[in-house]
Amino acid sequence: MPPTTAARPAFRTFPAPADLPEPLPEPTRADLRLDVVLGALSDPLRIGIVRALLLEAEAFDHTCGWFGLDRPKSTLTHHFRVLREAGLLRQRQYGLERRSQVRVDDLQARFPGLLDLIAAWTPPEAP
Amino acid sequence: MPPTTAARPAFRTFPAPADLPEPLPEPTRADLRLDVVLGALSDPLRIGIVRALLLEAEAFDHTCGWFGLDRPKSTLTHHFRVLREAGLLRQRQYGLERRSQVRVDDLQARFPGLLDLIAAWTPPEAP
To answer: Which SMART domains match (chains A, B) (predicted)?
Structure first.
């Protein structure tokens, strides 16, 4: 087990429910690339999505509606896809709904400290 | 002083020589933004530049020639500027030469763990 610091926030994860749909296509843990992951996080909205799940998740995974983001659905779908394809989020299709969770174990294993950075991020002041 | 882990690599920094030129324009420590910093690192060449300075610097700052990168000068100038404008590198103009160093203190203060992530990054296999 890697050493942790006293300041390490607790990330909110929940046990997997029964009968989960299969995850949508995503890179394997071994295929995660730091440059791609950082690129996916180069947008405040996208860092904010990952941070909200890390610190405020209330269930195993969440629909994009849960985040309360004031953007068109197609825009949100795009941002969630970027995060999934980079390997930050795992997404599952539940009928018409797509729900997302952070790949906490995979990211901690490959990029220790990354999730702490995201959790410590402060959203910019609203304009 | 923040807690550190046993695995923390030593970053190579050198004392400032006398009569340094002024730094080129850059964001202040308070103005550093994580999303912008991560965006600047979303390119393997740029992560590689910061990593090389962190782990292999041999002097206070280095010209782009020091890195041995096989790219046109104008391309390198662009990549170094992106890193400076995001706040990762400090650059100074020495006559015709521009030299770069990592803003280690500023980045450690604002984004603890970020430099460790960069130092731990493994360059992709050469194609």
So the answer is: HTH_ARSR
Could you give the number of structural domains in chain A? 1
Q: For residue A46, what are the domain limits? A: 29-120
Q: Say yes or no to pLDDT of B8 above 70.
A: no
Residue B70 lies in a domain: yes
For A96-124, b/e burial (b = at least 16 CB within 10 A) is eebbbbbbeebbeebbbbbbbbbeebeee
Q: How confident is the model at residue A68 (pLDDT cuts 50, 70, 90)?
A: very high
* pLDDT per position as a tens digit, B50-76: 999 999 999 999 999 999 999 999 999
Question: What is the DSSP secondary structure assignment for residue A125, as one 8-state letter?
Answer: P
Residues 23-42 of B with CB under 8 A from A: 33-36, 38-39, 41-42
CATH of the domain at B33: 1.10.10.10
- Give a yes or no: residue B106 inside a domain: yes
Residue B125 resides in a domain: no
Asked whether the beta carbons of residue A39 and residue B36 sit closer than 8 angstroms, the reply is: no
- Give chain B's count of helices (H) and strands (E): 5, 3
pLDDT of residue B104: 97
The ipTM estimated for the assembled molecules is: 0.85
In this prediction, residues B34-40 reach a mean pLDDT of 96
Using the Cβ of A125 and the Cβ atoms of chain B, whether some distance falls under 8 Å is answered with no
